[in-house]
Each structure stands twice: as C-alpha cells, then as structure tokens.
Amino acid sequence: MQHNNDFFIKPGHLTLNQLKMIYDGQYNKLFLSEEAKINLDNSVKNVNNLITEKNPRAVYGVNTGFGKLASTRINEKDLSTLQHNLVKSHCTGVGDFLDERTVSLISVIKIASLSMGYSGVRYELLDALLKLINNGYFPCVPIKGSVGASGDLAPLAHLVAPLIGVGYVQYKGNKIQAQEALKECHIESFDLLPLEGLSLLNGTQVSTALALKGLFKIQSVFESALVSGTLALEALNGNYEPFDPRIHELRGHKGQMIVAEKIRGLLSDNYSKKEKSSNSKVQDPYSLRCQPQVMGACLDQINHVAKTLETEANAVTNNPIAISETGEFLSGGNFHAEPVAFAADILAMVCTEISSLSERRISLMVDSNSSGLPSFLVNNSGLNSGFMIAQVTAAALVSENKSRSFPCSVDSIPTSANQEDHVSMATHAAFRLNEMAENSAYVIAIEMLAAAQAFDLQPHKNIPNQLKSVYTDIRNRVPFYEKDRYFADDIELVKQYLLKNSFNIL
C-alpha cells in the first residue's frame, strides 16, 4: 500500500531538499521508480550481449581482473565468482559503524546512480537493498577504510555484502548476521552476475553522503551563528553603521549583502530607530563589525558546496560505464572523488571560521574592558568565575577545528601497486565535518548564553523584537547565572536547542 510519504527514487533528479528529507528520516518507505527499472533492465541486456558474443571483448571488471590485475583475463565459468570475490575481499573497513540515517542516505544516492542505467546491475538487487532498509535492517558499514579514489570501495562493499549473504546488519541497535536479516525479510541471497559487484562498489556515494550530512548541520550552525552574532552585537551596544546596505553593494559579493540584510532584519525595529549608534567607539572590533564580510564569504562557499554535492548525488560514478545504446563499455575515472574532497575541505574551513568569529565575540563579552559589564559576566566576580572557563572551552573547540581544517584533498597515498597513484581522501575529509559542526554548535551555544547574560546585566536595555523569542527560548531552558554553578548541562541544552531549531533566516 502506498503512503503519502513514500519516496520514489527518480534517477538523476534528487534535490538537496529530498536528500535532507532522506537523511532526516522523513519518509515511510523507499521505492524505485518505474523509470529506474527500465534503465536497469536495458543495462543488464547490454552486459548479457557482451558475454554471449562469439569472441567476447576484454572489458574491465566484466571478464578481467581489477586494478593492477586489469590485464588478467577471466574464464567465462568464473565470472560470477570474480564478482563475489571482489565484494568479499573489499570488506576491509574498520572502526565504528555509520549511523542508520547516513546508511539510508548512502543507499539512496547509490541506487539513484546505478539506476541511471549505465551499471549492468539488476533491478532486483537494488530493490532487495531497499527492502532491507524499509524493514529496519541497515548494513553495518565501518567508518574507516576509503581513500575516495576508485570510489568508496571498502564501505560500499560492506553496504552491499549482505545481499550475497555476507557481513552484518544492524537491527534495532543489534548487530546480526546478514543471512539472518535476509531470512527475516524473505530475500534470497544473490549470485552476482558479470559487472554487478564492481558497479556496486565503484562510486563516491559514501563520501558524498557524509559531506551532505556535514553540509546540513553546518547550514544549521551558520544560521545559529547569525542569530548569536546579532545578539552579541546588540548586547555590546555595537555600531549599526557597518551594516548599511550601501557598503555591501559597493563590494558586490552576494553572500555579504545577504548577511548584512539578515542582520538588519534581526535588529528590525532597533535598526530603524538607531542607525547611528550611541556607542562612543568609532569602530567596533572585527568580530562584530565584519560579520557580513566573513559570514557572507562563508555563505557563498556553503552555496557553492551545496551545488557541487547535489550534482555529485545525481552523478554516474561507476566504472566501466556501460552505454546501452551503442553496446560500448567506457573505462574512465568518474569514481575519483576530488570534487567531493574539495567541497568537504571548503566546508571544514567554513565551519572553523564560523566558530572562530563566535569565540572572539564571547571573549569581548567576558572582558569588562571591552564590554563595560561585570568581569566574566557575573556579579561579585572573584568569588564567582562566571563565564571565564566557558570561554576557555570555546577556545579549545575552535583550536580543535583549526587543526581539523587541514585540506585532506592535498594528501595522496598511492594504492593498488601504484595503479591508483593519486587519491582524493574525500571520505575522511567529509567524515570529520560532523564533529567539527558539533564543536561549532557548542561555541555558538556559549555565545548565546553569554549574550543572554549580558542582556540581563543591563535590565533597561531593549532587545529587538526579532531576537526576543530566541532570548526567551534560552531563558526557558537556562536561568540567569546568579552565582557559580555546574554549567556543562546549560551549554548542552542550548546546543541541542540551536541544532534542532530552525531559525528560518535564509
């Protein structure tokens, strides 16, 4: 029975909103479209035609070995064994298993790519993977083991190994044998046909899904930082002049103009009343004054990365590419994940800059010389340490993000006896983003708490209407910091709030 929130995978037409919906689990069941079945059937016929030729051509991965062994011809009777051996030998991943939401996203992107009809993979195989997921059985995919070159070989091998009765799946938090899961879902284990194993393993879907996961969280962190930065600006009685639209129009960067506009919108009624601040300082520190320039540059890069990842999620990245119309098998390198590696490296830098700017504003608020407020935002400081060590925590997290920002894409360790002599390291580049976004979210949570405290220490100060709800949400979770108390829980509560809340700024 079809439900309104059933999701039909249409090859080549995945949007960012749909990908986020899949990651967030906002669907009932996943299905392949009829178009996908037609594409897959035609592709399988193309492979069958090759195998039944009187003197079959040597086609990589169909009747030859893999990697450095590409020149080794395989006997026809061993072609299925070749594909099974490939999957089993590539199950070399290590570390913790990817979470179920990420496995779902990987699976959808992988299935969409193969369903374009250039892979030689049967519809039944992909339908079986969806059936496992729809019934709550998620392949156990270890986090580590891919260099993002010939595709995400090891993690994708773990993803599809259960289809041949090998490996493990997670069901309701428990690790069980793949054969047991197949039995529970009334699925017979598959004998792989020529090219199927290779097409299932080639591809950038793991690194792409991990980068998308990072993108979605960093987008949330970015919006939260716009709010916290505006709260800090107002709490510190910052100048409004740097947000005058004429300044940003003269530079012309779209992101910069958007951020300035959004900050003016958050200040709303206050901005219209006080375009010239009563602040005695001629200019504020950069962390207040240059928010449009820094955050705008971040926004431009986020949007660039989003476009890259949406393209990659709809790409054909297996090898060889089987062209049904002409019967050709084109051997190339679409599995090389350099676009994803660059995108992930950019997101890492963006994430670090967001947290770095936020920490500098926290530092301004806790410093009485800069803020004019009680030292470390607490009355009777000395007896009370207030926000002193919360700022230290923020500094520690920013430093960690900085060290994680080294571009992974410039690293390369040749593999496969130098056949694969340049790799992207996209998978690691993408995997680190989630932890970096978490770090940034904690920093922003501390800034929000500090700004709320700064407002409370100035009881006659007017909070702009657009920010009052945020202030109220914070105070509904965390009370005023009257005297020193156990503070970690407060930071955690606000961090969870800002990641779950949609500020709907952009």
Describe this structure in words.
It is a single chain. With 506 residues, the protein is mainly alpha-helical. It folds into 2 domains: 7-203, Fumarase C, Chain B, domain 1, CATH 1.10.275; 210-310 and 340-500, Fumarase C, Chain A, domain 2 (Up-down Bundle), CATH 1.20.200. Helices cover 55% and strands 6% of the residues. The chain contains 19 helices and 9 strands. It has helices spanning 16-23, 34-51, 79-89, 100-114, 123-134, 153-160, 178-184, 196-201, 205-235, 245-251, 254-273, 286-289, 291-313, 338-366, 368-371, 388-404, 426-456, 465-477, 488-500, and strands at residues 7-9, 30-32, 94-97, 137-139, 142-144, 168-171, 174-177, 321-323, 328-330. The strands form 4 sheets. The chain has a 3-stranded antiparallel β-sheet with strand order 4-6-7. The protein has a two-stranded parallel sheet with strand order 1-2. The chain has a two-stranded antiparallel ribbon with strand order 3-5. Strand 6 (168-171) and strand 7 form a beta hairpin. Helix 9 runs parallel beside helix 11 (254-273), helix 11 crosses helix 13 (291-313) and helix 14 packs parallel to helix 17. The longest helix has 31 residues, at 205-235. The chain starts with 6 loop residues before the first strand and ends in a 6-residue tail after the last helix. The model has no long low-confidence stretch (mean pLDDT 93).
